[in-house]
Design brief:
Blueprint lengths: L3 H4 L2 H4 L8 H11 L6 H17 L16 H8 L1 H17 L6 H27 L4 H12 L5 H13 L15 H26 L10 H47 L6 E3 L2 E2 L13 H6 L6 H6 L23 H8 L2 H19 L7 H5 L9
Antiparallel strand pairs: 1-2
Helix pairs in contact: 3-4, 3-6, 3-7, 4-7, 6-7, 6-11, 7-8, 7-11, 8-11, 9-10, 10-11, 11-14
C-alpha cells in the first residue's frame, strides 16, 4: 500500500494531468481542419486504449487515510479545469463560427473535439468535484455541468444513482440485454424527471414546496441559460448550434460510461421493495493504468460506490472475485457498447458468470432482466 509520503509527490500526480494536452489538440484541429479534426479522439480514446494494451493493469492501492493536505496536486488538476474548459468552449465558438477556412461540416467536426474535451474530461472532473464537501469544489462541478447543459446530473447522481444503483429506481443501471442506443434515449427522458422527483421529495421532508428557492433546479436553470446566452452573444445562431452539439457529444460520452459501469448488475431483491446493500460486486471495474490516468480512477468504480467522497487518487481496486473486472478499459468498452451485438457477445457471458458466483440461489432472473421488480422507497 502506497503511503501518503509517496502519494503526495508531484511526479505521482503528474500522469493524471496529461489531459491538459487535449486543449492543444482541439486548437490544432480547429486551426488546420481536414484530417487534423481526428486529433482529439485519437489523442484520448485511441491513444489510451493502446497505452492500456502496452502498460496493462495497476493493482496497487494508496493509503485511503491520506489527508487532503497530501493531495494538493491531484486536487489542483480538477480545480483548474473549469476555467480551461470555459475558455476553450467560448473561445472556439468565437474562432470557429467565423473561420472561413472551415466548411460547415468541419466546424461541427471541430466541436466534436470540444465535446471530447468537455465530456471525456470535463464531466469526469465535475463528477469528482460534486462528491466533495468543499463548497468551492461543488460549485466548480456545477459550472462544468452547466457548460454541457446537464446540470440535473448532480442531483440524479447523488440522490438517485448512489442510493438506488442496481434497482429499478436507478435509470442509469443498464438492464441485461438492453442495447446502448435504447438505454441512451431512455435515460435522456427518465433522468431529469427522476432528479426532479428526488429534489421534490427532499424539500417536502423539510416542509417546502418543490418550487422553493432551495431547489437547486433554479441554480441549474440559471447557469444553463447564462451558458446559452453567452454562446449566442459570441457566435450567433451558429454559436448556439456548435455549443449544443458539443454538449450532446459530452452527454453521449457520460451515458456511455454509465452504461458500461453497471450493465446487467442488480442488487438482490429481499421482498417488499427492499434490496440488499450496495457491495463492491455491483459495479464493473477496470484497473488499466493509462485509462485511469485519463479518467482520474473513475474505473475503480466499486470503491467509489463504497466511499463516494473518497478522492480519486485514494480509490481502491479489488480482486476479481470481489468486484467484476471488464476485459478492457473504458476507451475500448465504450466503443464495444456502441455496437450491441459485439457488446452482448463480450459482456452477457460475464453477467451470467457473475450471477452464478454471487447469487447461485436465484434461479429465475426474468424479473430482474425485465426491470419489473418494485422500486425501493424514496429516502
Amino acid at each position: 500500500m502506497l503511503p501518503a509520503s509517496t502519494i503526495s509527490r508531484f511526479r505521482n500526480a503528474a500522469p493524471f494531468g496529461i489531459s491538459l494536452i487535449l486543449p492543444v489538440l482541439v486548437i490544432v484541429a480547429a486551426t488546420q481542419g481536414g484530417w487534423f479534426l481526428l486529433l482529439p479522439p485519437l489523442g484520448t480514446w485511441w491513444l489510451y486504449a493502446i497505452l492500456d494494451a502496452i502498460i496493462g493493469r495497476y493493482t496497487e492501492n494508496a493509503d485511503p487515510t491520506t489527508e487532503d493536505t497530501d493531495l494538493f496536486w491531484y486536487r489542483l488538476i480538477t480545480m483548474i479545469w473549469f476555467p480551461i474548459q470555459f475558455v476553450m468552449i467560448y473561445g472556439m465558438i468565437w474562432y470557429v463560427s467565423g473561420a472561413e477556412h472551415l466548411s460547415t461540416a468541419e466546424k461541427f467536426g471541430a466541436f466534436f473535439g470540444v465535446g471530447v474535451l468537455s465530456g471525456t474530461v470535463g464531466i469526469v472532473y465535475s463528477h469528482e468535484l460534486m462528491h466533495q464537501s468543499n463548497r468551492f469544489e461543488r460549485w466548480l462541478g456545477d459550472l462544468l455541468l452547466a457548460t454541457v447543459l446537464y446540470s440535473h446530473f448532480r442531483t440524479e447522481h447523488l440522490l438517485v444513482h448512489h442510493p438506488y444503483v442496481g434497482t429499478t429506481r436507478d435509470a442509469v443501471t443498464a438492464r441485461y440485454n438492453e442495447g446502448f442506443h435504447r438505454f441512451f434515449l431512455r435515460v435522456l427522458f427518465e433522468a431529469p424527471s427522476s432528479a426532479w422527483t428526488a429534489e421534490k421529495a427532499m424539500l417536502a421532508r423539510r416542509g417546502l414546496s418543490a418550487f422553493d428557492r432551495a431547489n437547486p433546479f433554479w441554480r441549474y436553470g440559471t447557469l444553463q441559460l447564462l451558458a446559452i446566452i453567452l454562446a449566442v452573444w459570441i457566435g450567433g445562431w451558429m454559436g448556439l448550434a456548435l455549443f449544443a452539439f458539443q454538449a450532446l457529444v459530452a452527454i453521449w460520452q457520460l451515458e456511455l460510461t454509465n452504461y458500461v459501469e453497471h450493465y446487467g448488475l442488480t442488487r438482490k431483491h429481499l421482498g417488499d421493495g427492499k434490496y440488499e446493500r450496495v457491495k463492491p460486486h455491483h459495479s464493473w471495474n477496470a484497473d488499466q493504468k493509462a485509462s485511469n490516468w485519463l479518467l482520474i480512477n473513475l474505473q475503480r468504480h466499486s470503491d467509489h460506490h463504497y466511499k463516494p467522497a473518497r478522492r480519486f487518487p485514494l480509490l481502491q481496486t479489488y480482486p476479481d472475485a470481489e468486484a467484476p473486472q471488464l476485459p478492457f478499459g473504458y476507451p475500448v468498452m465504450t466503443v464495444a457498447a456502441m455496437i450491441p451485438p459485439i457488446w452482448r457477445r463480450v459482456m452477457n457471458p460475464r453477467v451470467r458468470a457473475w450471477r452464478k458466483l454471487h447469487y447461485p440461489e436465484i434461479t429465475d432472473w426474468s424479473v430482474y432482466k425485465a426491470g419489473t421488480l418494485p422500486p425501493p422507497g424514496i429516502r
